[in-house]
Design brief:
Blueprint: H1 8-18, H2 23-32, H3 37-45, H4 64-76, H5 85-89, H6 92-97, H7 100-112, E1 117-121, E2 137-141, E3 144-155, E4 162-168, E5 182-188, H8 189-192, E6 197-202, E7 210-221, E8 225-226, H9 232-268, E9 270-271, E10 274-275, H10 280-308, H11 314-339, H12 350-358, H13 367-378
The structure holds flavin-adenine dinucleotide.
Flavin-adenine dinucleotide (FAD) is lined by residues 120-123, 128-129, 153-155, 204, 208, 210, 359, 362-366, 368-369, 372, 385.
Length: 385
């Protein structure tokens, strides 16, 4: 079964919800760089953001395939899931590695949307992709951790009640392995902001609510440590596969959006007395985008199926994310070209989606790092770093 046919009822319900949020809604937000509160509320009310939470905690207990169908349809409709997709999967860190008390305390609220856990703080200016070099440090002081340091590109921090934070609890130099000595804390943003945590928004080419965070002796209760101290890097890594697969499905949705729009426009637009789409120079790039999107979509399905089966799927998740982000970027460029001048006009939504889909070749992991993983871990080539 191809992904387009999976979960038809969910897809249909998502499409109907998204129809209430047309291009004009996103254009207005984009102009002011404001958060799509009404859209996120509608998704929350419909239960789409809690599909991965088990039923015992108030979610619908579906697998990753259902979540990919939801995000793909959001993006195919011209909407954007970036404002809230992390509400779906960030809770996985609590679900997989949290204590029974932490799960009972947080998961029901996350499931009904009264608690938003959609910020995760990993990236730092001085470390970049080399996460083992993060320097934000949590020092134990009685029944608290005291956190100091800095994070960058932390999305949705201003729209989240809780944040999963990766920090060092032992300096890198004092660890046997560089990936040891990092821990995950659940930070209550409602208490933290203004009491040791400063959030500074970063304006970017897309409307993504991303921020810079400054920690200055922020006190976090020790009971908010997730899992064991020093093992945080492994916990974060285990959540990254879900994130990559879900973001890949957004790229598939974006690619479908561009292909739908380009096909429709190429049939309608007449130049030199005929539809531009009757020229192979216009048709072939649209067809090529469709071929690339279809291949990437099958890779996303494969990665999601392996994830659901509990199999090791790091390579598949990474490859699916890379293929899907390249397919969406090719489709975006093709769509602008097909629209000629109108590809640049705000009211067509093409230029907005073009800016939005570019992100996914850099975040949550850049293409070179995926290629390096495949080269060394799959093909056995020598390590370059
Ligand atoms: C809008 C946005 C939202 C984000 N949201 C979050 C978030 O919510 N939480 C969070 O923790 N992070 C977030 N990020 C951070 C994101 O995950 C990183 O930007 C991304 O992983 C790339 O890291 P970097 O920017 O530090 O690039 P760098 O690591 O500085 O790399 C720069 C470039 O060099 C390349 N490069 C680096 N090393 C090598 C090498 N050895 N070989 C070949 N090429 C190499 C990279 O591929 C990249 O193209 C976000 C980023 C953006 C832009």
């Amino acid at each position: 079964m191809t992904q387009a046919e999976s979960f038809p009822e969910i897809r249909d319900a998502v499409r109907r919800l998204c129809a209430d949020f047309p291009g004009s809604y996103w254009q207005a937000l984009d102009r002011e760089r404001t958060y799509p509160t009404e859209f996120v509320q509608a998704l929350t009310r419909a239960g789409f953001l809690s599909v991965l939470i088990p039923e015992e905690f108030g979610g619908s207990g579906l697998g990753l395939g259902a979540a990919t169908a939801i995000l793909e349809e959001i993006h195919r409709s011209g909407c954007n899931g970036g404002a809230c997709h992390a509400q779906m999967y960030t809770m996985g860190t609590v679900l997989k590695h949290g204590s029974p008390e932490q799960k009972a305390k947080y998961l029901p609220g996350i499931a009904d949307g009264s608690l938003r856990l959609q910020a995760f703080g990993v990236t730092e200016p001085g470390a970049g992709t080399d996460t083992t070099r993060i320097r934000t440090f949590a020092r134990r002081d009685g029944d608290h951790y005291v956190v100091s340091g800095q994070k960058i590109w932390i999305s949705r921090a201003e729209h989240s009640d809780l944040m999963v934070l990766l920090c060092r609890t032992t300096a890198r130099e004092d660890c046997a392995k560089s990936s040891d000595g990092m821990s995950v804390l659940l930070v209550d943003m409602r208490e933290a902001v203004g009491n040791g945590l400063t959030v500074r928004p970063i304006r970017t080419i897309l409307n993504h609510a991303t921020t810079e965070l400054f920690f200055d002796d922020l006190r976090v209760p020790a009971e908010n440590l997730i899992g064991e101290e020093g093992k945080g890097f492994r916990y974060i890594l285990s959540g990254m596969n879900a994130e990559r697969i879900l973001i890949a499905s957004e790229c598939i949705g974006d690619a479908r959006f561009f292909i739908d729009r380009a096909s429709a426009y190429a049939k309608d637009r007449n130049v030199f007395g005929r539809a531009i789409g009757s020229n192979q120079g216009v048709q072939f790039p649209i067809a090529r985008a469709y071929v690339q999107m279809t291949g990437a979509s099958l890779m996303v399905d494969d990665a999601a199926a392996k994830f659901e089966a509990g199999l090791d799927c790091g390579t598949e998740a990474n490859m699916a994310k890379m293929a899907a982000s390249e397919a969406s970027w090719y489709a975006a460029d093709m769509c602008v070209q097909t629209h000629g001048g109108f590809g640049f006009a705000e009211e067509y939504d093409i230029e907005r989606k073009f800016r939005e889909t570019r992100l996914y070749q850099v975040a949550p992991i850049s293409t070179n790092l995926i290629l390096s993983h495949v080269a060394t871990h799959v093909l056995g080539l020598p390590k370059s770093f």
